[in-house]
Amino acid sequence: MTAPVAHPPEGLSAPDEPPHAPPPPTRPTMPFWNRIRLLLLFAVAWLILVWAAMADNPLLPFVDSVRIQLHDSQWLIWLAGLELLRQVHYLIEERSPRYHRFWSQTVFGGVDRAARRRMSDWTRFRLARMIKVVLLVALFAVVAAKALDTSPVLALFQAPALFYRALPLILQISFGFFFIAFQFIGLFWLLSRGGVDTYYPDDIKTRFADVWGQDHVVERIRENIMYLEKPDEIEAKGGYVPGGILLWGPPGTGKTLMAEAVAGETGRPYVFVDPGAFINMFFGVGILKVKSLFRKLRKLALRYGGVIVFFDEADSLGNRGMLAQVGPGGPTGRGMTPFNTSCHGTAYLARWPRGPPRRRSSPRRQPGQPGPRPRGPR
Amino acid sequence: MRWLRFREGPAVAGLVLLAAALLAGCGAPRYTYVKNSADHMYVKIPASWHSIDQKDLDNAIGLDPAEDASSRGLWLQGYDAADTPSALHLFGSSAPEPAVLVSVQQVPQASRGGLSLDGLRDFFFPVSPTARQNNQNPQLTGFGLLADDVLTPGDGVRGVHTVFRYRLGGGPPQMMDQTGYLNDDASKVYLLLVRCSTTCYKDRHGEIENVVSSFTIREKP
Q1: Which of these, A137, A287, B28, B157, is most buried using a 10 Å CB contact count?
Q2: Could you tell me which CATH class the domain A196-329 is placed in?
Q3: What is the pLDDT confidence band of residue A353, given thresholds at 50, 70 and 90?
Q4: CB burial of residue A118 (10 Å; 0-12, 13-18, 19+)
Q5: Pairing mode, if any, of strands A308-311 and A270-273?
């Protein structure tokens, strides 16, 4: 088994690089939480059964309850064992390229390709989400049935009644915490709304015919729209699909109208981000807004096969680190953070601007010529 | 360790604790925990004692096999320390090893007023002086009372614990350790009877005492 292979940052490839990086030789490393979360779920479910047995019998000590549940609820232990086996399999896939190739291409390659052929990304996402929810509800029903000594179906109906009965106590206990926390949660939630408007395809009536006097820009944008229709095919043939267009110009030249027209022509949802959307009074709200914006964009893109987001006055976002600062603009004069290749943010740039910014050196001195005068007071 | 970050610590600790709990759970439980959750009755019996077949038990008492426990208003289970458990060890003339009968009986509305502590004492065998005077059964001889304690565990539940000796059908003398409880509104009678021969009772007194003292009734869940 070899050491884990370093993976390049995921996402779009840079303009001057080949469009399709070869598929990674091994499985991408899984975060630790993802490795153990199902194991923890089974462990918690099993401990609930141990606790329920103890709660149902005042004579039953913990050790004997554990011993009895090891026998009575061994299906959960088996499930946890299967999950452990799956994680070991993933761990080997992360280390061994041959093993990964065998499973991802020889064993599951056909199924994966068939699923992609028959279902859109949005349908596969919904299907996966539905299966997860159904499995969680089933596990809850079975565990609740064992705890309540009834059938899983009846347990599903009994559990809300039990919860309702325990509600006064739960509210009493949690009041102290929520009394303070809710004020801030509510405040931040309210503040993280706004500044982002979503228009669905039917809402937008603007077309390219409505844009007058910018024919050369419209021409360029029409070219770019082609990319949005079938990005996979263009990439497969070696083309590069740009993720964005920068519209630059003085006020009143039709930049917003142009973006609306793009949305109208492509039939994709259109998300308009106000210039002040990310400038907030409180620390962290801007970050919350960016997170919620991108979550919304991902969902819309999955559902409609793409989304157009228009950042109005994008230059207001130019100050690096501004989102985490207090007040408009944040502290100035921080200078640029040195770029390095491990930063994902610069992976989308072409290669030449990625290097650290440096003062362009003066013309090469010829031998015998005097050098530049040293700076500083004389 | 680079792969183990600080925030992952609690999760790892949880898994380690769980693994420790699983290891602690290796082996069989020491007791069989007999319970009737609906009526809140609990007792623990050594795991080496075996359950008596339910049909065997029903036949020995003369219950209608067509009826189930809820329709007949009687829930009962039997356990036997002998290698081949049998209802005869509970109701026959001799029990060389300890045998246990535990039951919960619903009392009809009309009979609730007449139930007393003496009623609990005389549930299986005539123990109170009046019942013994009226006893017409020639098979029961050699009575001796060893203990008689009134129990008041709370929540309106009251009961009586009696230890007595009888000779059944001319067999060897048998010790009966009987605990009976009546709930607050006299709608349920809870009974635990442990019996075995006098020598067995002397030899295995610790085990029997353990079973009897674990007999628990909870009027409130």
Answers
A1: B157
A2: alpha beta
A3: low
A4: exposed
A5: parallel
pLDDT on residue B169: 83
State the pLDDT at residue A12: 58
* Percent share of chain A, pLDDT over 70: 75
Neighbouring-strand partners of residue B168: B140
- Distance, in angstroms, between A64 CA and closest chain B CA? 5
Residues of chain A contacting B30 with CB distance shorter than 8 Å: 64
Alpha-carbon distance of B213 to B45, in angstroms, equals 11
What is the Cα–Cα distance from A61 to B33, expressed in whole angstroms?
A: 10
Tens digits of residue pLDDT in B148-167:
999 988 888 999 999 999 98
Encoded tokens for A103: 């499973």
Q: Say how far apart CA A65 and CA A70 lie, in whole Å.
A: 8
Distance of CA B197 to the CA centre of its chain: 17
Domain ranges of chain A: 13-107, 196-329
Q: Does A257 contact B at CB distance below 8 Å?
A: no
Strands, DSSP E only, in chain A? 196-199, 270-273, 308-311
Q: How many CB atoms lie within 10 A of CB B75?
A: 19
Q: Which of A49, A56, A94 to mutate to test the interface with B (most CBs of B within 10 A)?
A: A56
Residue of chain A whose alpha carbon sits nearest to that of B35: A57
B29-217 is classed CATH 3.40.50.150: no
Residue B158 near residue B120, CB atoms below 8 Å:
no
What's the rounded Cα separation, in Å, for the pair A200 and A203? Answer: 5
Any B CB within 8 A of A56 CB: yes
Q: Treating both helix axes as pointing N-terminal to C-terminal, what angle do B9-24 and A32-56 enclose, rounded to 10 degrees? A: 40
The tens digit of pLDDT for each residue in A4-58 reads 555 555 555 666 665 556 678 899 899 988 899 999 999 999 999 999 999 889 9
Residue A340 pLDDT class (50, 70, 90 cuts): very low
Contact (CB<8Å) A63/B25: yes
For the purposes of burial, counting CB atoms within 10 Å of the CB of B5, is it exposed (0-12), middle (13-18) or buried (19 or more)?
exposed
